[in-house]
Amino acid sequence: MIRLGMIGFGTQGRKTYGKAFWEGQIEGAELVAICYTNPAQLAWVNENHPEIKTFDNADALYKSGEIDAVLIVTPHYDHPALAMQAMDAKIHVLIDKPAGVFTKDVREMNAKAAESDVVFAIMYNQRTNPIFRKMHDMIHGGELGALKRFSWIVTDWYRSQAYYNSGGWRATWKGEGGGVLINQCPHNLDLWQWILGMPKRITAFTHEGKWHDIEVEDDVTAYVEYENGATGVFITSTADCPGTNRFEVLGDLGKLVFENDKLIYTKLEMSEREFSKTNTEMFGRPNKETTEIDCTGDYPQHVGIINNFVKAIHGEESLIAKGEEGINGLTISNAIHLSGWLNTPIELPLDEDLFLAELKKRWK
Amino acid sequence: MIRLGMIGFGTQGRKTYGKAFWEGQIEGAELVAICYTNPAQLAWVNENHPEIKTFDNADALYKSGEIDAVLIVTPHYDHPALAMQAMDAKIHVLIDKPAGVFTKDVREMNAKAAESDVVFAIMYNQRTNPIFRKMHDMIHGGELGALKRFSWIVTDWYRSQAYYNSGGWRATWKGEGGGVLINQCPHNLDLWQWILGMPKRITAFTHEGKWHDIEVEDDVTAYVEYENGATGVFITSTADCPGTNRFEVLGDLGKLVFENDKLIYTKLEMSEREFSKTNTEMFGRPNKETTEIDCTGDYPQHVGIINNFVKAIHGEESLIAKGEEGINGLTISNAIHLSGWLNTPIELPLDEDLFLAELKKRWK
């Protein structure tokens, strides 16, 4: 039985992660320790879950010898340092998303993970969605052929001003390190890179405090280019209501469209590139067939990621989301910010020092 | 009975416009003259429609006294000059889309139209689509409130290389003045400005000869901003197969989505801007209701525009598409080209001299 500690015990820590353990949804591990800065919350734990040890600082938790693994659910900026400290203490690590706020920091964490023997995972629970798994598998299996275009309109992250007013750290450069990109979109940015790979150039239009009384961006449109010439558009906002969540991917052999919890697949009879060169009819088009892909199956979300992390520690499963992969979505996020700030296209690999310098300029 | 002449007698002229007259679909006008440069086609007219007079130059047609109105279906560059000549001869004018290739030329045509008493229309047949009429009427009627965002992915203009090989003038700067923007998209660009109005700034990514062996653009992504802060994305290509035609418009009071010949409307119970400021629940969202809008009704296409033109001449109807409005879609088209060429955002009103100078640089 793996002894797991959790650092951070806010809404997500209590209502999602704690609940998963207390309702018996996690196999092979038990929640034995909680570390948090808020005494009232720790008192609640002591009263309601007296079997759980409480700590008010991570150092004490890590040195206690009470835990084999840690779930880090703190503010974004702290993820890399707390993860590295755990790795030094030979404690397995599952960090919440995002991996961090700037990739320079996350790269150090990844380097330490590479030298360490611990299991290192990240809470990309949307990778357990059967639809995204199917998109990933079809595209990586070559069923769509070479990527030509994608668009993801993911504007269903609605937040009113009340949300932003609920915590002074929210939606500040110093407290969170960004807005919709860093708080709401890490899942989407990860799924994008997981399913389609990393682009090579990003041109973005970010609007800060456009719809809310906040410092950071709440409206983003990004245009990206891939090494092979494919292009894409990513659109997000926290003020669109009703929002949209539609992810379309076009390859040389067909198209996938995710919207309204359905996945629609159109398969061409032959490669479009080949057809274009060989067809002789003026308005000829390749034959095609459209079907809805069956994506029934479990969508175990956070519970699925925690169980997978535990099984990986037991050597029974490989990780759904390796911690090291967190840098990819964050790189896209950082590049979008940087492009918006500097009003210029940003090439990847990202100039991480430049990004950090620009981010720090915005700390108040 | 209005005596109508047609200049240009290619595929569209014969199979769409000529056919409409010969099948008795046009009321109040008869096709009495055809002007074309191809003797074989004129011989075909003489043999099959001996009642129609044939001309091999527009000048002779205009001076003949045989026509009251003219339908101009020539290559794009010639539209403004032929229209102005008709206006001078007091002949009513219906031009095919686009209005021309550069707005400087089209502005002169509009100025002449303003001084003239003739009826001046443009073949924006997609304005007769009940779905787009409904979108136009709802948005102009205020049902969506202030515009916040739109996206139009209109990539269902597939053309293989064979299409481009079918005429040496096709897809050249000198022959057509552009690619997908000037040949395939004029309807979409017009519908965009007709339904949503003109943006104030355009940043575009145009790719020339990306998918075909052609000089001009066959892949375009444009990001635009409106005076009120609304943003939009327009994506088009002639190489996407299967393509998409999805037009989404978000306003402060709701959303319209056109796709697959359906129009889906989501109406908010209250203004989102007002909700955001007054709501007190952390994850609160305005109540909403989604319905499919009934858009049954005639879609008379080109026949509808010709009949409307004739009725406007008879003083019985106002024009569905005034000729003068052709400059709007063309301005967007020109601005997208210019932004792509110069790799910079373009502000509207457009610098027309700059556009023309850049276009001319590309003539071979």
- Helix content percent band of chain A: 25-40%
**Radius of gyration of chain A, CA atoms, in whole angstroms:** 22 Å
- H/E element order of chain A: EHEHEHEHEHEHEHHHEEEEEEHEHHEH
Largest interface (CB < 8 Å):
A-B, 55 and 54 residues
Shape of chain A: globular
Total count of strands of chain A: 15
Determine the mean pLDDT of chain A. Answer: 97
Strand order, sheet with most strands of chain A = 14-13-12-11-7-10-9-8-15
Which class of secondary structure composition applies to the elements of chain A?
alpha/beta
Report on the biggest sheet of chain A. Answer: 9 strands, mixed
Detail the poorly predicted runs of chain A.
none
* Beta-strand share of residues of chain A: 15-25%
Number of helices of chain A: 13
In quaternary terms, these chains amount to homodimer
Measured distance between first and last alpha carbons of chain A: 45 Å
Walk me through the structure:
The structure is a homodimer of 364-residue chains. Chain A has 364 residues and is α/β, with parallel strands linked by helices. Chain A contains 13 helices and 15 strands. Chain A has helices spanning 11-22, 39-48, 58-63, 79-88, 103-115, 130-140, 161-165, 180-184, 186-196, 272-278, 301-313, 326-342, 352-361; strands at 2-7, 29-35, 53-55, 69-72, 92-95, 120-122, 147-154, 201-208, 217-225, 231-237, 245-251, 254-259, 262-268, 288-292, 346-347. In chain A, the strands form two sheets. A nine-stranded mixed sheet of chain A has the order 14-13-12-11-7-10-9-8-15. A six-stranded parallel sheet of chain A has the order 3-2-1-4-5-6, with helices on both faces. In chain A, helix 5 (103-115) packs antiparallel against helix 12. Chain A is globular and about 75 Å long. At the A-B interface, strand 7, helix 7, strand 8, strand 9 and strand 10 of A face strand 7, helix 7, strand 8, strand 9 and strand 10 of B.
